[in-house]
Automatic annotation (TrEMBL):
The keyword Protease does not apply. Residues 22-316 form the Histone deacetylase domain. This is Acetoin utilization protein AcuC. It comes from the Bacteria. InterPro entries: AcuC, HDACs, His_deacetylse_dom, His_deacetylse_dom_sf, Ureohydrolase_dom_sf. Belongs to the histone deacetylase family. It comes from Aeromicrobium terrae.
Length: 391
């Protein structure tokens, strides 16, 4: 086994491009890779290329009829098929979209394969994390569900317990739906509540299907939740749920649209709060899975100033060489950000916030909207998982 973590990256991954006016701009990946390179993060990672998933591999989680229709639209991008979620404002049709989506899925599959086979303990695909894609429809900027493809591959290789934690501001509905009836997969999603944000799912009462009760955990947060509240919720639920499930491998999705500057969501986290969450997930992987950790990107629409900084922190944590938040951003990176955005780039790898929180054990406040949300999740999920609510 290599002592170094793996980053699966190929320049072609930036070909997942819905067009110039779409919020999910591939420049966010380009600028992340530039920043990570300039700060020396890539020196601590084995960077390997990606190959697209085959139709058979995609069909482990997607309907073959859906894949065929994506292929046809990919070859004829002037057409649309809203019945499968393509040709909409969220998911415009573009030439080569099947190939671009299959490549992202292939990169996450490669990351999962390297971790599960023991080639490395940690592997990342920052271009991945397309967690909204359903078996037969595109949704929320997501065509193929690369995360589910990777998880399903590990299950097919004999994995008995795979845990998935999603920290995107949007509910990880596609991954949850695909494994909702499978007791071998625990899905945990921390997201802005469905009353105020797409996709309108992720209630605390969504706990898993027949035979898999307790393997779906949802923490729906109030709009305006900031670092302290988000971290309070995370620590009140996630460690206990993971310890109870005893996963063999941890898969995480790191959509960073929970940031206070993100234009599409209403959460208020800082770079510092998000980085603290990533370090907590790293520790949980070390404690519970002997370090086996598969990492993807996800949402994030402050594409020039926020996404590259926090995903560079993520890659540094995956590499085992975290970056001091006070580190200055390189002049070459700042110049590129300013060229692309016309705005001054951040000077440091921090927002200057203190990522602290009040532990759940210090008491529940029923007058707090946040605490009521946390309590709802614990009350719905913990008894199904055999967890004492006093934990």
């Amino acid at each position: 086994m290599s002592g170094r973590a793996t980053l699966v990256f190929d320049e072609r991954l930036t070909g997942y491009d819905f067009g110039q006016s779409h919020p999910m701009a591939p420049v966010r990946v380009v600028l992340t890779m530039l920043l990570a390179r300039e700060l020396g993060v890539l020196d601590h990672l084995d960077v390997v290329g990606a190959e697209p998933c085959t139709v058979d591999q995609l069909a482990t989680v997607h309907e073959r009829g859906y894949i065929e229709r994506v292929q046809k639209l990919s070859a004829h991008p002037t057409h649309a098929d809203p019945s499968i979620g393509l040709g909409t404002a969220d998911n415009p049709v573009f030439a080569g979209m099947h190939e671009a989506s299959a490549l992202i899925a292939g990169a996450s599959l490669a990351a999962a394969r390297r971790v599960w086979t023991g080639e490395t303990k940690r592997a990342a695909n920052i271009a991945g994390g397309l967690h909204h894609a359903m078996p037969g429809t595109a949704s929320g900027f997501c065509i193929y569900n690369d995360i589910a493809v990777g998880i399903q591959w590990m299950l097919d290789q004999g994995a008995e317990r795979v845990a998935y934690v999603d920290v995107d501001a949007h509910h990880g509905d596609g991954v949850q739906a695909i494994f909702y009836d499978d007791p071998r997969v625990l899905t945990i999603s921390l997201h802005e509540g469905p009353q105020t944000l797409f996709p309108g799912t992720g209630f605390a009462s969504e706990c898993g299907g027949p035979g898999a009760e307790g393997t779906s955990v949802n923490i729906a947060l109030p709009p305006g939740t900031s670092d302290a509240g988000w971290l309070r919720a995370f620590h009140a639920v996630v460690p206990a749920a993971l310890h109870a499930f005893e996963p063999q491998v941890l898969v995480t999705q790191h959509g960073c649209d929970s940031h206070m500057d993100d234009p599409l969501t209403n959460l208020m986290l800082s770079i510092d709060g998000q980085r603290t969450a990533y370090l907590a997930l790293e520790r949980l992987a070390e404690d519970l899975t002997d370090g086996r950790w598969v990492v993807t990107g996800g949402g994030g629409y402050a594409v020039t100033d926020v996404v590259p900084r926090i995903w560079t922190h993520l890659l540094a944590i995956v590499a085992g060489h975290p970056i001091d938040p006070s580190t200055e951003t390189p002049a070459t990176w700042r110049a590129e950000v300013e060229r692309l955005s016309g705005q001054r780039a951040p000077q440091r790898m921090t927002d200057g916030r203190s990522a602290s929180w009040r532990d759940w054990g210090e008491g529940y406040d029923p007058d707090s909207w946040l605490d009521r949300c946390i309590n709802a999740t614990r009350t719905e999920s913990f008894p199904l998982m055999g967890i004492d609510l006093s934990v």
